[in-house]
Amino acid sequence: MTTRRRRGNSDSDQTFTNNYNTQESSVVYSKEKEINKIMPRDRTAEFNSAVRSLQGRQIARAVQVRDVKKVKALQSYGEFMMIAKSVGFNISNTYAKLEKLTLLAKRKSLFNDRPQEIQELTYIIKEDLNSLNQQIAKLQEVAKLQKAAQNNVGRKHLLSHESSVVLSLQSKLANMSNEFKLVLEIRTKNLKHAKSRRDQFSQGNNLAALSDSSSLVPRQNSLLMSSNQCAINMDNNGDQDRLQQVTQQTQAMAVYDNTDQYLYSRAETMQNIESTIVELGGIFQQLAHMVKEQEEMVERIDSNVQDAELSIEAAHTQILRYFQSVTSNRWLMIKIFGILIFFFIFFVVFVS
Q1: I need a surface site. Which of 74, 179, 287, 337 has the fewest CB within 10 A?
Q2: C-alpha closest to that of 258 among 270, 266, 247, 246
Q3: In what ranges is there compositional bias, type Polar residues (predicted)?
């Protein structure tokens, strides 16, 4: 009886399996690598850690060198950048609030209006703008103090960066204040439009209906009273008529009270908007003063550039004069050499 041997895994099969697994893993790795190349990665934390380590190295080097002025300059620059970072964060938050206020203020519906929320956002944004204006003024004062203290220290690039940061924050605050003013103007126009629509479609009809109802009630009462006087005097009917008249008068007074309350709230909203615009004018004046200081600095730079341009033009004219003198002397030398060569040839040929 013949026995069958079980065929085991040969070396060729194992080699084929290993090669297949290796190829599959390489394909998966290449796919993951391609996906990592395509997909973006947030490396902000790595960047921040690198910046902090670089700043720490600079401070450590300054401490090792025992350069007190350099250490103070780096510390003051770090404080300045921390304040600027907080100001930028507050500006971004205020921008988010301003976007929400813009969406609410652009609504023209009479029934989907949110005056309380709009007033709260207006007050909050106004306070934020005042606070940001004060923070930027403080930041500018810090930059001025650092500039006065570091005139003799070779940190001109830090000072220029600080001035550019202050100017950028001022421009952002000015743009945001201008947008806030435009939103308030849009809100004012929408309130006026809503008031005209309400007066046209609601208030006139209500007043007409109330006047008709109030004019009809006394007539009916007078007719009833005359009929009652002619027939039998019934106290119950008279009480009911007087109760109905008092009820209608109360409803009319309630409508008038609601209208007055609505108009009072709208008037208060308009006053708040006007006062906010006036305060924004003050902020614009302060920003104009800050920009004026920057303008004086730019004018000084412009005057220096003009002086440099005049100096360059004067140097150019002097170089041209020198070139003309050199060229003229060159022609003189050529003439002299020509005469000498002529006499040399003449004496060599004819005299000798």
Answers
A1: 337
A2: 266
A3: 11-23
